[in-house]
Write a structure and sequence with these properties.
about 325 residues, alpha+beta, 2 domains, 9 helices, about 50% helix
Length: about 325
């Protein structure tokens, strides 16, 4: 790791990131102006449409209050449907190719440089995703409908081969309310960085480390009581071989992992099966030029700190496995 502090890394890419941010700001300003004009157009359009349709439906006037309510409700519904259609057309016509290209430049020049700080022999492809088979092989909650992935990278952490990617997995859930009406909603199964580490040796067992109960579908694994109270307050450990699990998760490792967890409020889930370690970090969407909830360099700083956290977790676990006599 060349840079341990984000400020040092940011200074190293200052000349590269400044023009990218300036281009992004200009493109955002142009889109904001267009959007404000579109909102004004929609308001005027809706008012005119409401007046015209109201006058037309006046020919069907009736003293029936229910009919009057239904009439105006129909007008509002039609207006909402037309607005939705116009919004789709607006999004299509204002799709900003320059903005997409700027985001790609940001990933190619800034995110790639940041990842190189943590991953040796890095190969990064923002357009590619980790294959779905690898996700399924992790045995993590296999009830899902949709799988998306991007920002794929490979390399070595602590001399162990790693492949990781931004992954978004959802399930369509049908729920029934108290009146018997059915509603469909999208349930997020996983949203964050998912990866696989090829260990230098097989542990000959299964070990799952996860907060608040395991979602890994591993047969034969049972919950194991650990030595560190602080570790147990954060993580649960499941295994089919308690001796091997205790050899890997020494008191020092437990304390280190608990301390690392405090630095980032990120749900961490790990499944070690023989010589494969699957890791899931619930980080939400990563590596975009700006996250929805972040501005300026705050987004990049968050990515930096998350990657530092991730590499330390991987380093601690792989080092513990290397040091055991398994």
């Amino acid at each position: 790791m060349k840079y341990d502090r984000f400020e040092d890394f940011l200074n190293s890419v200052k000349d590269t990131i400044t023009p990218i941010k300036e281009k992004w700001a200009v493109e955002n300003k142009i889109l904001t102006k267009k959007y404000n004009k579109f909102k004004i157009f929609i308001v005027i359009f809706d008012i005119i449409l409401f007046i015209i349709t109201s006058k037309y439906l006046a020919y069907f006037n009736t003293p029936d209050l229910y009919f009057k309510f239904a009439k105006y409700a129909l007008i509002v519904l039609v207006i909402i449907m037309i607005d939705a259609f116009l919004a789709v057309i607006y999004d299509t016509l204002t799709f900003n190719v320059n903005k997409v290209n700027t985001n790609k430049e940001y990933k190619d020049k800034i995110i790639n440089k940041m990842l190189e700080n943590f991953v040796d022999e890095l190969e990064y492809d923002p357009q590619k995703g980790i294959d779905e088979k690898t996700y399924k092989d992790s045995l993590y909650d296999d009830y899902y409908d949709d799988y998306k992935s991007e920002d794929y990278f490979t390399g070595k952490i602590n001399n162990q081969f790693v492949k990781m990617s931004d992954v978004y997995v959802t399930e369509t859930v049908v729920e029934e309310d108290k009146d018997g009406n059915k509603h469909t909603r999208t349930k997020i199964i996983f949203d964050g960085l998912f990866g696989k580490v090829k260990l230098s040796k097989s542990i000959g067992a299964n070990v799952q480390i996860t907060p608040n109960g395991s979602r890994f579908n591993v047969k034969g694994s049972k919950r194991l009581d650990m030595d560190s109270r602080e570790f147990e307050s954060i993580f649960d450990v499941y295994t089919n071989n308690p001796i091997v699990a205790m050899q890997i998760l020494t008191v020092n490792i437990e304390e280190d992992m608990a301390e690392l967890q405090k630095t980032q409020d990120i749900r961490v889930e790990i499944n070690i099966m023989d010589d494969d370690m699957y890791i899931l970090f619930h980080t939400n969407n990563m590596f975009e030029i700006f996250r929805a909830d972040e501005k300026g360099d705050k987004a990049l700083e968050k990515y930096f700190e998350i990657m530092k956290f991730i590499t330390k977790i991987i380093d601690k676990i792989t080092q513990a496995i290397d040091d055991t006599s398994i």
